[in-house]
Amino acid sequence: GDGGLVAYGYGALSQALLEHDLVDTLTFFIHPIVVATGTPAFRPGMSKRLRLEHTEARSTGVVTVSYGRD
User: In DSSP terms, which residues pair with 51 in a beta bridge?
Assistant: First the structure.
């Protein structure tokens, strides 16, 4: 579609959108910290082929990585 959706964090909505091929681009903002917990992008046993579209290293240490459907 022509619209955009921003989801902060990751959860059931994001997983459902991915599983039903309703996501064209995934953009991750990778922060320079380590957290011991979190929700995985895909449910166990689920996988999607993605292709790298863009990367950007920011002066704050955050790295932006975008992937599109393969």
Answer: 68
